[in-house]
């Protein structure tokens, strides 16, 4: 009996020594992997981490519009990923998931403050808790297609709303089957961004500092009236969502549209010319009412969140993966390659970032970006739908701009009570 | 050997059959039948009944994304839903969609079945091809129809402009009527093969001699259709109407992929309303309540369908 026990013990010990420690697989849920322009870049991140550690990374891809819903479904079934990419404006929503980690406890508050400038670190904070780390940053601003402007005979970038309209008319009249401005007219979440920027441009606050709506003021109605005018004069078109605008822009059927800095990657893909097309993508200031006005733009960024108690230590495979993709050697290529700013202090100071003409032009165009006022609201999803529905009703001629603004004001007042 | 007297005592079996003890063979067969039902009942309970009961329970709670636990609020959700203009408009939109999609699916399914019931060269191939929309995933069909109706690169606009019928592309999916027509057409296209198969099966059981006799008596095609074919197909029509209504009341995927419930709310049927409440507005309690109302609209046609089915088995 003793012999058997000793033999078994020795066998188990030998097995324990012979078998290496189990490599962890980090589940990384993101939408970039599902996009043609991003799949290879995410694969490279995952391969890089696998090569530099004992751990594998598995991509769980969902389309941008489906990823939040799947996060909540996975939370209900305890199948949350280790790491997730989140659109900055949706972070307050995702932060409601109980299993989300406080990253100050994972990485240490002092270490994070040393790694990121305060402004960027704030992108990942909800109610004072560091629930995310900034991954790539920038603004939602306007881009112009140099080729289309040249074909239409438009000299220079329009600075005022009046010049902008004149440029659109030239494009409409000279570029066949064009949608001069790829204004979002289909998806509520996309309509919201175009509307916010034009509302600010015309001087409406949408939601004022006192938390009250301000959409049926003279300025608010003028903004919707301007958007409706673009539709009526075929300077914009119905059935356009952001992906449609990106495609039309790359195919030289659209001269202007609002997007994140990653616009250049989409243009490169849809033009069929790859990165050689990027010099045609010109970041520009949003036209203003007066020549000396402040161009409107919206703060934008992608952040990384982590879930699960197993990942609560800085030594976990998931924490290692997050730090790996935020390291200079990985982050700078990834962010700059996608046209976005890397938000770490050291990456921002790098020569690659400072010498990038596209990023420099983008930063110069985004003079005073404002935070999305709808994102932090607890019923932000419902409010986005309200704004999208009422603005779309005006754009499609179902309501006058004044009626749409009045109805929107009434709905927002009730929702914000 | 003494004479044997035949008594009940002698013939009584020494062991009683277990079936006899439990009510006889019929009862045993019933028990066996019930046993066979257990896997299906278990699957039904897990996949359908449990989620439904959970949703029914949640419909009495306030449960938004910010709440860690649902909070009981009685019938407040139902009061809000039944007085909410958006839900009421979704209800009417659903009725319009169900009515149009069911009517045209049956009309075209019947017409196509009548054509394919006549012998002609290539009929078998055409019958096979006619089933293609049924085989195709609904989401694929939605994208195909989305491409056909698209205002920028759609087939209809391309043809119209090529033929000089249109000066500018038209945005069919951006008008309430156009969007509703598009989702109805897409759904009818998906449903016609199934209904056609039902009707062909019904037509093949018709007494041909009876029709020939009617023709000899001078009946034309219309009289044959109205006095012989339709009365014969009445049970099939009843079942397809109810089946079509239930299917169209449940429909989600084609509408979501084609219009997303828009423009504005023109194609927001109840299924889309539930999705929006749950996954865009993150209000699970209200989504569950709209879902319960939605189920309530499905119950009457489902009851009539089951009643027709039961009639067939009795």
TrEMBL record, chain A:
Pfam families: SBP_bac_8. The keyword Signal applies. Belongs to the bacterial solute-binding protein 1 family. It is found in: Periplasm. It comes from the Bacteria. Its main location: periplasm. Keywords: Signal. One of its GO terms (cellular component) is periplasmic space. Coiled coil: none annotated. It comes from Oceanomicrobium pacificus. This is Extracellular solute-binding protein. Residues 1-23 form the signal peptide.
TrEMBL record, chain B:
SUPFAM superfamilies: MetI-like. Residues 91-305 form the ABC transmembrane type-1 domain. InterPro entries: MetI-like, MetI-like_sf. Keywords: Cell membrane, Membrane, Transmembrane, Transmembrane helix, Transport. PROSITE patterns: ABC_TM1. The chain crosses the membrane at residues 32-53, 91-116, 128-150, 170-201, 284-306. It is found in: Cell membrane. Its main location: membrane. GO terms for biological process: transmembrane transport. The keyword Membrane applies. It comes from the Bacteria. It is a multi-pass membrane protein. Pfam families: BPD_transp_1. CDD domains: TM_PBP2 (cd06261). One of its GO terms (cellular component) is plasma membrane. PANTHER family: BLR7065 PROTEIN, SPERMIDINE_PUTRESCINE TRANSPORT SYSTEM PERMEASE PROTEIN. Belongs to the binding-protein-dependent transport system permease family. This is ABC transporter permease subunit. It comes from Oceanomicrobium pacificus.
């Amino acid at each position: 009996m003793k012999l058997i026990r000793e033999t078994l013990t020795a066998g188990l010990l030998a097995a324990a020594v012979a078998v290496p420690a189990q490599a962890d697989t980090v589940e990384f849920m993101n939408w970039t992997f599902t996009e043609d322009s991003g799949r290879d870049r995410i694969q490279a991140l995952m391969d890089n981490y696998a090569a530099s550690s004992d751990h594998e990374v598995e991509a769980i891809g969902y389309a941008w519009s489906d990823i939040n819903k799947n996060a909540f479904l996975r939370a209900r079934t305890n199948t949350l990923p280790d790491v997730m990419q989140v659109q900055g404006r949706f972070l307050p929503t995702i932060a409601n998931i109980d299993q989300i980690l406080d990253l100050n406890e994972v990485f240490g508050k002092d270490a994070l403050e040393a790694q990121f400038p305060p402004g960027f670190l704030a992108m990942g904070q909800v109610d004072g808790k560091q629930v995310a780390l900034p991954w790539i940053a920038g603004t939602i601003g306007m881009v112009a297609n140099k080729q289309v402007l040249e074909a239409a005979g438009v000299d220079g970038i329009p600075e005022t709303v009046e010049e902008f309209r004149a440029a659109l008319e030239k494009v409409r009249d000279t570029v066949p089957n064009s949608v001069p401005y790829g204004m979002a007219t289909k998806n509520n979440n996309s309509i919201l961004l175009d509307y916010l920027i034009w509302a600010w441009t015309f001087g409406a606050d949408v939601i004022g500092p006192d938390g009250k709506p301000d959409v049926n003021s003279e300025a608010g109605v003028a903004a919707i009236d301007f958007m409706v005018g673009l539709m009526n004069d075929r300077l914009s078109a119905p059935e356009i969502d952001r992906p449609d605008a990106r495609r039309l822009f790359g195919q030289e059927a659209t001269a202007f549209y609002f997007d994140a800095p990653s616009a250049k990657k989409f243009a490169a893909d849809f033009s069929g010319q790859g990165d050689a097309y990027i010099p045609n993508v010109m970041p520009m200031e949003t036209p203003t009412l007066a020549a000396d006005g402040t161009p409107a733009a919206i703060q934008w960024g992608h952040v990384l969140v982590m879930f699960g108690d197993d990942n609560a230590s800085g030594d976990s495979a998931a924490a290692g993966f997050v730090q790996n993709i935020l390291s200079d050697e990985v982050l700078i290529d990834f962010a700059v390659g996608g046209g976005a700013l890397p938000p770490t202090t050291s990456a921002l100071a790098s020569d690659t970032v400072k010498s990038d003409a596209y990023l420099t032009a983008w930063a110069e165009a985004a003079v005073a970006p404002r935070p999305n006022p709808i994102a932090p609201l607890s019923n932000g999803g419902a409010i986005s739908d309200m704004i999208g529905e009422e603005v779309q009703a005006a754009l499609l001629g179902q309501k006058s701009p004044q009626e749409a603004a009045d109805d929107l004001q009434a709905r927002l007042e009730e929702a914000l009570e | 050997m003494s004479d044997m007297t035949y008594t009940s005592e002698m013939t009584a079996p020494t062991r009683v059959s277990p079936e006899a003890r439990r009510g006889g063979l019929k009862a045993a067969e019933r028990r066996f039948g019930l046993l066979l039902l257990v896997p299906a009942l278990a699957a039904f309970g897990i996949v359908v009944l449990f989620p439904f009961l959970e949703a029914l329970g949640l419909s009495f709670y306030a449960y938004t994304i910010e709440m860690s636990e649902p909070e009981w609020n009685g019938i407040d959700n139902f009061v809000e839903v039944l007085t909410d203009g958006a839900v009421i408009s979704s209800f009417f939109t659903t009725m319009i969609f169900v009515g149009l999609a069911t009517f045209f699916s049956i009309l075209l399914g019947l017409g196509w079945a009548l054509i394919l019931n006549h012998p002609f060269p290539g009929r078998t191939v055409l019958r096979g091809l006619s089933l293609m929309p049924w085989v195709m995933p609904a989401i694929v069909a939605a994208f195909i129809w989305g491409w056909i109706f698209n205002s920028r690169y759609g087939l209809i606009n391309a043809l119209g402009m090529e033929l000089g019928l249109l000066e500018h592309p038209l945005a069919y999916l951006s008008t309430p009527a156009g969007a509703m027509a598009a989702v109805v057409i897409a759904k009818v296209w998906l449903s016609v093969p199934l209904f056609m198969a039902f009707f062909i099966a019904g037509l093949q059981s018709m007494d041909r001699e009876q029709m020939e006799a009617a023709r000899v008596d001078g009946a034309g095609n219309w009289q044959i259709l109205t006095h012989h074919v339709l009365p014969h197909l009445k049970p099939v029509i009843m079942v397809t109407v109810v089946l079509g209504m239930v299917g169209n009341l449940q429909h989600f995927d084609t509408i979501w992929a084609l219009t997303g419930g828009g423009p504005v709310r023109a194609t927001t049927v109840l299924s889309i309303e539930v999705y929006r409440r749950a996954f865009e507005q993150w209000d699970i309690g209200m989504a569950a309540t709209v879902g319960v109302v939605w189920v309530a609209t499905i119950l009457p046609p489902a009851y009539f369908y089951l009643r027709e089915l039961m009639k067939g088995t009795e």
